[in-house]
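Researcher: Here's my situation. A collaborator sent me these components and asked whether they could plausibly form a single complex. I don't have experimental data yet, so a predicted model of the whole assembly would be a useful starting point for our discussion.
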Amino acid sequence: MASLAGPIKTRRRRRDWRWLLHVVLIVGAFLMLYPLLWMIGSSFKPEGEIFSNLNPIPTRLDFSNYIKGWTLGTGTSFSTFFLNSFIVCLGAIVGNLLSCSLAAYAFARINFHFKGILFALMIGTLMLPFHVTVVPQYIIFNRLGWINTFLPLIVPKFFAVDAFFIFLMVQFIRGIPLELEQAAMVDGCNRFQIFTLIILPLMMPALVTTTIFTFIWTWNDFFSQLLYLNTEKNYTVSLGLRQFLDASGQSSWGSMFAMTTLSLVPVFLVFLFFQKRLVEGIATTGLKG
Amino acid sequence: MQAARHSAPPAALTSSPSKERQRRRRRQLGDNSWGYLFLAPWIIGMLLFLAGPTLVSLYLSFTNFNLLNPPKWIGAMNYVRLFTMDSRYLTSLRVTFTYVAFAVPLNLAFALALAMLLNAKIKGLGLYRAVYYVPSLLGGSVAIAILWRQVFGPSGIVSQILAVFGVQGASWVSSPNSALWTLIMLHVWQFGSPMIIFLAGLKQIPKELYEAAVVDGAGRWQQFRMITVPMLTPVIFFNLILQIINSFQAFTPAFIVSGGTGGPLDSTLFYTLYLYLQGFGNFRMGYASAMGWVLLIIIGAFTALAFLSSKYWVHYEDER
């Protein structure tokens, strides 16, 4: 009898526990998302309704906040801010892909003098706070006359300053079988040919991860954009949004919510399309999203 | 070791040992130039944008410099002033330490709790994981900081919800007692990245350990304490270091929520915000450099402390 009763009881108990787990997870998910839902809902509400109604779902869809917000500010519209953000992101992505993959291949596969020391130095720069180097960097860019251009935000990326991605790619290249390269070498390929013809195609997953994270970080960046861009025509989305806090204050919450919502759309789309890759990237390397 | 492996196939083709040696030397030379060729962008970038500026900022930290006149050497005066004459600086230190001390452990606790819940084999796992990750994904952005400012603002949702329970809403972001706590909550809300790292760690723990523990009559709490936590310590350690490094450098939320001032009454004057105000608001570049170096030392010290203490609480599997 006892042996019969045992399994039945545990099975029933487990089913109950899962039902409860779902409840906890759904309530938690709602709490997590509520502020975002409220913001998105508010962006469609008329001004008066935003703070009088806790329900994130608007009574009717009102797009006037979006129309007003897009051109609000002092003349420059969000078309400019979005375009600027995309330019900066694209530059940063191309720079990171080119320079970091080159450095990663050297660290992973080529044997050269002082490799150990240089590799340790590269890992060391991972922990270097941006705020230590920011003043001299600013002075350099100021001397070059690059303040209020996109160059300070893009050019360093072509020199592999994001050690995170070098590290990620080194780990990835180490997983590629060595025999492929040896065969190519016997056939007379040089290092550059091996890199472009064999390694780069094989490390596509690492390149995609780098692209995604560079995009999200650059899109969300505020500090360096605040430092280097100082006229409205060069503002990125981050700086454009900040305009709302200075200029319009309390009167235009609706359009502010509309534009903050819009500013999250590109990042959210990237997330939807590359969710799996993004999660893998975080799980394996600890990249912060 | 890699060079030896590379040269193995050609070596097998040659007959004369001296020729082989020559070939190997040529390959070695080739590898050296190829290596430095591939590394050239990184080396230039490292010297120009990282190592160089680090040393220059060390020099500047001993000077008075406003970008217009040449730097004037003043010895350790900047550092002395920071710790003995600048009460706003000490405030920024206190604010930042409070932020790190509460935001990091709470963030990791939520991350671990949710990772534990999501480690079960249930339907819709991917969806849950995505939903819990979304705040972290958007977290660093100005948009979320603006949202937070409204959520805890005078007529924000928090005030409204509390009003339902009869608590008359204060403006949480404009009260010096609560403004910092809204930023801590913002950080805690963004536990998605450490959660995913924890999840990956939990998947690595062998199921047999739990099965053996159940046979031995261990309850859930005992399993958690005796198996999950010890097996997870390397991941906890990793997350802890990342979180410490990141949260000492927090900037955007404080800047946006306080409107770039660190207010109310300097209650959200984060370290990096004060550095920005001194360096790029007042153009006291030497002073800001000294602040940068103190931050480097603080982060270095905390990381070193974590590493040194790790041998007492972090268990790696191969040590068993």
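Model: Some features of this prediction you could bring to your collaborator: The mean pLDDT of chain A is 87. Residues 148 and 229 of chain A are 4 Å apart (CA to CA).
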